[in-house]
Amino acid sequence: MAKILIIEDEISISKMIAYDLKQFAHEVVIETDGLMGYKRAKSEAFDVILLDLMLPSMNGIDICKKLRAKENRAYIIMLTAMDDEMHKLEGFDVGADDYVTKPFSPRELAARIRAGLRRNVLKDEPSTLVYNDITLNLTSHEVYRQDEQVLLTLKEFELLVFLVKHQGQALSREQLLTKLWGYSYDGDTRVVDVHIFKLREKLDPKQEFIKTVRGIGYKLM
Q1: pLDDT 10s digits, 158-215
Q2: Would you say residue 123 lies in a domain?
Q3: Distance in angstroms (rounded) separating the CA atoms of residues 217 and 131
Q4: Is 173 in the same domain as 73?
Q5: Is the same domain home to 83 and 138?
Q6: Are 132 and 191 within one domain?
Q7: How many domains does the chain fold into?
Q8: Whole-prediction pTM value?
Q9: Which of 132, 153, 158 shows the shortest CA–CA distance to 201?
Q10: Residues 83-114: pLDDT tens digits?
Q11: Cα-based distances in Å from 30 to 3, 21, 23, 135
């Protein structure tokens, strides 16, 4: 069971989503105004935030950006009727973990949420991973380079963990999608490129250890 916040101004859609999610025993909260939804997400802990792109008072992009700036680690899924690449990449760029394009089926949304809640950390695994001067705390989801903390979104953190665990291996974009997003993607692997770009920006601006393997994907040296 997860605690889910829906920020969606179309009441009929938000009620339909809430009804479907409650069938899976999730706890659901609805906000129809962008600013009120942002304040709710700031003041309460949610596992998942379903965030519409076009909202009164504050749009979804600004909400996502502000939440990530405050280190909010909820799994954020953008809800949008705009099925174009620019808006998808903009959402990922400010820290969204996933998106669904309206109209979508309850089964698809439930699968996306399950994928978001899935964690790669098992009880018998060590609590930290170390790669060169980078330390990953698998319990607190914190990353440090030397003594300085580096703030990552949940999906960026999961991607880095997977790369560290498979260092030296050439990993295809399709493999990364399957392992980290947990569902069959629609063929657009650019989501992986966007997250790799953000990781490089935060940890490896000179691309010294996150290498592009031409025709395949990426490899951590």
Answers
A1: 889 989 888 888 888 888 887 777 655 555 668 888 898 999 899 888 878 888 888 8
A2: no
A3: 20
A4: no
A5: no
A6: yes
A7: 2
A8: 0.58
A9: 153
A10: 666 777 787 888 888 888 887 888 888 888 88
A11: 11, 12, 16, 37
